[in-house]
Design the sequence.
């Protein structure tokens, strides 16, 4: 009996485990391997790093892809640019999202579900379509709705340059990722015990003081989860900088995409991805720890 | 507390920020003129011309097919993963497993897409399988959607009263039977939610599909993207509005369905509690250790 139970148990663990190993973890080993290959005119367009020649098994590690990243300024700029943009858009999402999540958590139960639905709806809709909506609004010259509107009201006499600017990228990023900040913050804030705040106010604390000293520290896990859910994907974001950004805003996701699709330099793109992953591994582990606590209900 | 505090104002401004652009998109999709921003009267002509665009229509059906299979597989896989994470406290590689289940939620899509493509290319070189196309898109979508399903389902599994499963187990039911007859019906709303979420995520995905699809197997977002790159077009306004409207309807239905199920469950629990409260003495007796019968 215990033998069969064990078999069933192994099967239950084994199916998702093997799937994730094969299609999530193993690809990272392969991307690492191909980042050491040389670009070649072949199908697939790279050389094999393990070669059997002259009765010897040779492993040829080509470091040029990594050296390129350091030498060519555009890559370094793209990494730094992505980190900077991700940092500020996370901050903006937090500043806008926290009061929103707070207001939802304070509303009565019926209203809460309606608000939550309104926040959740956009996350189900393609980022592509939501960003596309902004292309129409921010369009340059008379082509943009915002420009035509401002011209019509007489607030400006000449159309502003909005599309293909860093401002447009920030708007697009905050717009796309705001719900991912609000949802974990709400999940945390709604669990807070109101009596703590009442006790603080009975003891004479002002609303802001008790908010800053009680609510904010208690919501630490929600803040971490929300910030990671925004920061990590934004570093590698492609759609927003591609459609709203111009040549001034180079982000690494777009550079990787161009390296892969336009230049067909697969090993170069792999090296870019490996370095991006190395930068993001600490935030990802932090997120996973936080999430594991939530998943196991220890939080 | 003030009724209209700072946070409430922010909430309303935030909601306006989220919804105004979408409304503008939908309204302008009914614009008759060729110029996107110059309003020249209501018209349905861009919607009509969608039907003649066979390339786009093929992509729509391809996307729907992938989304359908993805949602089924992701629910199965994600539920298994959630079950393992919440019900099996100790096994070798548990931390790794937990990490692999949650990491896809934040992993930048360009990394996941590129690494999966390189895996498929390497596999095709070694064993001649899989061919790039619908199958590879399905694998990519299933992998990343099952992470979302696992999160949704495990939060529900954690809330469940373990004693019901234990009781069935004590009465001699096999673990599989307990799972199918007791656990699954109780978590059904979250399974539906996870499935709908996977369907939407799969339908929306541009980056993963661009990497892992072979030439000629482009999905709807890939088609839209290639024409959007050239600028705003009235026809794309129409298709984008259709997606927006159908996803909103879809989300609303999912929400409504789940809420009704939750309400019914809560009412049942309340009723049971009321019936119970009459015989509280009995429950006290039950809490004290029973005399050894067996």
Sequence:
């Amino acid at each position: 009996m215990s033998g069969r139970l064990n078999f069933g148990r192994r099967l239950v663990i084994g199916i998702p485990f093997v799937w994730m190993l094969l299609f999530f973890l193993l690809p990272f080993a392969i991307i690492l391997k191909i980042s050491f290959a040389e670009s070649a005119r072949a199908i697939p367009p790279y050389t094999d790093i393990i070669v059997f020649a002259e009765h010897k098994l040779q492993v040829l590690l080509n470091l040029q892809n990594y050296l390129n990243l350091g030498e060519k300024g555009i890559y370094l700029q793209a990494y730094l640019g992505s980190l900077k943009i991700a940092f500020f858009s996370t901050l903006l999402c937090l500043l806008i999202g926290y009061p929103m999540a707070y207001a939802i958590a304070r509303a009565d139960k019926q209203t809460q579900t309606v608000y939550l639905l309104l926040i959740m709806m956009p996350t189900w809709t393609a980022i592509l379509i939501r960003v596309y909506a902004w292309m129409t609004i921010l369009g340059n010259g008379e082509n943009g709705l915002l420009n035509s509107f401002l011209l019509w009201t007489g607030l400006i006499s000449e159309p502003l340059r909005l599309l293909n600017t860093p401002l447009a990228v920030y708007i697009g990023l905050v717009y796309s990722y705001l719900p991912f900040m609000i949802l974990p913050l709400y999940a945390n804030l709604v669990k807070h015990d109101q009596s703590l705040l009442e006790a603080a106010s009975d003891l004479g604390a002002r609303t802001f003081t008790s908010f800053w000293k009680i609510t904010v520290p208690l919501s630490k896990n929600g803040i971490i989860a929300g910030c990671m859910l925004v920061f990590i994907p934004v570093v590698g974001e492609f759609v927003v900088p591609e459609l709203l950004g111009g040549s001034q805003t180079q982000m690494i996701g777009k550079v990787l995409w161009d390296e892969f699709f336009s230049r067909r330099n697969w090993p170069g793109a792999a090296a870019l991805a490996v370095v991006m992953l190395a930068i993001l591994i600490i935030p990802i582990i932090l997120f996973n720890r936080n999430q594991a606590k939530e998943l196991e209900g220890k939080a | 507390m003030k009724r209209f505090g700072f946070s409430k104002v922010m909430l309303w401004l935030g909601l306006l920020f989220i919804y105004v652009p979408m409304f503008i998109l939908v309204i302008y999709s009914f614009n008759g003129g060729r110029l996107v921003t110059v309003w020249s009267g209501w018209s349905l002509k861009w919607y009509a011309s969608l039907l003649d665009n066979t390339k786009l229509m093929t992509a729509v059906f391809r996307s729907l097919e992938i989304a359908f299979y993805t949602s089924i597989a992701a629910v199965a896989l994600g539920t298994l993963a959630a079950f393992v994470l919440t019900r099996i406290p100790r096994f070798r590689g548990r931390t790794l497993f937990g990490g692999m289940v949650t990491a896809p939620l934040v992993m930048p899509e360009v990394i996941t897409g590129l690494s999966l493509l390189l895996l498929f290319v390497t596999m095709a070189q070694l064993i001649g399988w899989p061919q790039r196309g619908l199958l590879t898109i399905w694998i990519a979508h299933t992998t990343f959607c099952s992470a979302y399903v696992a999160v949704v389902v495990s939060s529900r599994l954690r809330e469940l009263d373990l004693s019901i499963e234990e009781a069935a187990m004590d009465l001699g039911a096999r673990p599989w039977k307990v799972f199918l007859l007791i656990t699954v019906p109780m978590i059904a709303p979250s399974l539906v939610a996870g499935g709908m979420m996977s369907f939407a995520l799969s339908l929306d995905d541009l980056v993963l599909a661009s990497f892992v699809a072979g030439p000629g197997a482009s999905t709807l977002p890939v088609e839209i993207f290639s024409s959007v790159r050239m600028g705003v077009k009235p026809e794309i306004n129409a298709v984008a509005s259709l997606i927006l409207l159908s996803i909103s309807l879809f989300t609303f239905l999912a929400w409504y369905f789940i809420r009704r199920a939750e309400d019914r469950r809560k009412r049942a629990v309340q009723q049971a509690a009321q019936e119970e409260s009459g015989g509280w003495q009995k429950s006290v007796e039950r809490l004290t250790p029973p005399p050894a019968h067996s």
Q: What stands out?
A: Chain B has two domains: 22-52+230-260, 62-223. Chain B touches chain A through 95 residues (CB under 8 Å). Chain B has a mean pLDDT of 84.
